[in-house]
Amino acid sequence: MAAMKTIEIRTAIPGPRSQELLERGSEAIAGPLQVYLPIFAAEARNATITDVDGNVFVDFAGGVGVCNVGHCHPRVVEAIQEQAATFVHTDFTVVPYGEYVELAERIGSLAPISGPTRGAFFNSGAEAVENAVKIARLVTGRPAVIAFESAFHGRTMLAMTMTSKVVPYKTGMGPFAPEVYRAPFPNEYRGVSADEALAAIEEMFVTHVAPSQVAAIVFEPQLGEGGFVPAPLEFVEGLRAICDREGILLVADEVQTGFGRTGRMFAMEHYAIEPDLMIVAKSIAAGLPLSGVVGKAELMDAPHSGAIGGTFIGNPVALAAALAVLDVFADEDLVARAGTIGDTIRSRLLAWQARWPRIGDVRGLGAMLAIELVHDPATKEPAPELARAVIDAALERGVILLKAGTSGNCIRVLCPLTIEEPLLEEALDAWEDALASVLGA
Questions:
Q1: CATH fold of 74-332, please?
Q2: Any idea where the domains of the chain sit in the sequence?
Q3: What are the mean pLDDT values of the chain's consecutive 10-residue runs (441 residues total)?
Q4: 420 in Cβ contact with 47 (< 8 Å)
Q5: CA-CA distances (angstroms) from residue 371 to 193, 227, 409, 431?
Q6: 83: Cβ contacts below 8 Å, ≥ 6 apart
Q7: Which of 14, 143, 203, 233 is deepest in the core (most CB within 10 A)?
């Protein structure tokens, strides 16, 4: 008996109702809000999205890494409903509530930071990045921040300055925030070793900024928008050593790598290196706006009273969702599941690389995996048009994929960690068919 199929494509893509909404949106929605895929969601459950035309897709984008526990997990939905019926908002710094305390305790206990921790919650990843830098500057009394090539830290002014991609994020946006310096990120496939990247920081201390002026080094343990490049162990060890030597805070941006995505609850656990501060967001609340900074107690407590805050920080409904997310992770062992999913996907990606040389690299930790498409495996010239063609072909076959990389030539996997094995295989089959249609049989 043939396996039951979940993917169902009933119309051309986009279908008539999505097309109508696209046309209406062009008259009502600000043009810079570029729509990535021409389908409008009607319903989402676990690892699938059904559009307004009745087409059923497997979601390998996960709301850009937000849906690690899947869409509309029943326990998360129940928690949201219960909290919304109790109270929706007071502003924690005006009238506090226990959910904030509980989440700070639980995130602190999970964070790869020894000793007492403190947490503070915000709305978006970018907001958490900016607050982590605030804390680092207030703790150290220093102004400068070091970030890395191919990094993405958000779209607010300081976070956008730290982000390393001009189009579309920084075009026409200057002048940027001062005292942000950029070092190379190691990328073996592109010929940048960990030793070279660390040496560049040492050179930066001579030619660009004195280490005594640097408050924080902010890095992603695995690049997100920059192409899913994992940091080598020796690089993370080197960053920790530099920070310890110079009195700089090491800040791990785990916005995309966190909450099981890499096969550990947080990616820093792969390295057994402790950050001073860690930034979390995305899958923390299964789609509700929530982010946080967790760090060593003596650092988080050091800024003056009122130095961080905001009207909506740690909204109680989002906090209730986040507590439910942690329960789901514990009860369904999703961290281990991420490793299993990652093994399945990686084996397929490596087989595709052997079949199609224009898949120049396969990389990533756990279930946070990507392929990099190139025109020629020898020259490694990026092929963003191939990546886009594969994404479009996959959508027509019922799989939602996202690109990544500074050149836009990578395709990444951010499927829910709750995806069932038969559906995972069905989606991978459809993706493989899309690759064949673009790269040839």
A1: Aspartate Aminotransferase; domain 2 (3.40.640)
A2: 74-332, 333-402+423-441
A3: 82 97 94 90 98 98 97 98 98 97 98 97 97 98 98 95 91 93 97 98 98 98 97 98 98 98 98 97 98 98 94 96 98 97 98 97 98 97 98 98 96 98 98 97 74
A4: yes
A5: 20, 9, 9, 12
A6: 99, 316, 317, 319, 320
A7: 14
Closest CA to 282 of 122, 117, 165: 122
Residue 70: both structure tokens together: 């899947």
Q: How many whole angstroms separate alpha carbon 325 and alpha carbon 333?
A: 12
Q: Where are the alpha helices (DSSP H) in 68-124?
A: 74-86, 98-110
Fold of 333-402+423-441: Aspartate Aminotransferase, domain 1 (3.90.1150)
Q: What secondary structure letter does DSSP report for 272?
A: T
**SS3 state of residue 378:** coil
**DSSP letter (8 states) at residue 382:** B
pTM score, whole prediction: 0.96
Burial 328-359 (b: 16+ CB within 10 A, else e): bbeebebbebbbbbbebbbebbeebbeebebb
C-alpha R_g of the chain: 22
- CB–CB of 229/223 below 8 Å? yes
Quick check: bond before 14 cis, omega within 30?
A: yes
